[in-house]
Amino acid sequence: MSRRIEGKVSVGCPPQSFRFHYHNFATLDTTEDHYIASPEFTCNGHQWLLGLYPGGHSDETEGYVSAFLCHLSEGSITTGFEIKILDKFGNVKMAKTTAKHVFNGIYSIGWSDFIYRSVILDASQDILDSNETLTVDVSMEVEEEPTTAFVPKNPFVNMMKEMFNDETTADVCFEVVNISSADEKEEQKAESVSFHAHRLILKKCAPMLAALFGSNDTASITDVKPDIFRHVLFYVYGGKVPAEDLKQHAKDIIDAADKYSIINLKLEAEAVYVKTTKITIDNAIDNLLYADTKNCALLKEAVMNFLAENSTEAVEKISFTDFPAHVVKDLLVAFSRSSKKEANGANVDELTTLCVSALRRKLHKMGLEVDGSREAMIASIKSSS
Fold this sequence. Notes:
By secondary structure, the protein is α+β, with helices and mostly antiparallel strands. About 35% of the residues lie in helices and about 25% in strands.
């Protein structure tokens, strides 16, 4: 098995993670069982290298690129690791993870069928950059030093989550009405789902929900589905919405979180919706109107950026009859950022062209409210500076 290095390989070594760049990947030798060895690196006091086989490890894996982590030190160590192929934008295109293995002396573990070579070379996959560079990350579990004192995390968040919907300690109860109908002509049947809560926690973490009770110990919710309300209330108690549910029900969660002013959850759901929704000519205005109604500045910005980047097609195919006049400034900001220059060389306030995420980050650092329109966020920053 050859140990010579072909192509240019460079390495960056942040803690626990090691990155390798294989330049001119398409021209690397694809002889079977021929590998390119990365520079050696150290983790957990042991020496390692990544062996990449551009033409596969054996005749049984023809067409594949193989990847193996090689242990080079004497002695043994037990660790797990992950190897990832990144595209030119830094997104993970392929990842494979091992359970913990015992490496004893010079020993290699990996995958003969890690990824099809044709996938890497496919330009539509955006894996190779303009220099035909392939980027591979190796992440390894790091053992704690024996002298490191183990200190458990503050248990408060877990204790809060354990109190979620705990009937034995709760002093108030939400009755969430679930209206369902198999047929529009049938009479709708209303069923309610109970969620037990604690007035003190609601007053501190969700004042608008707390206000629903007044002097009563029950409150009725009729405009949020029970499964969505469960996510909202669990978030109030320190929980997280599962990623798949957040993606699938993003708009429902935005609606509920906006109505009851659970701001962080609203922003989290909005970010997921923006990330997973492709803005098109057909849905741009609908998304814009929704963003404007719910005060979703990030979504509004995404639509504006799309319109700025596709202005010719938008003018031809989109009816702007319902376009809100008060968002024209946002559209101009998007055009400004898209062109990356100011008309007539005018000096413009830096805040004017900052993206929504940057504005929210500034507000958060200043201890200010991060929800609101672009104009409201800029005004809040200026008034507090």
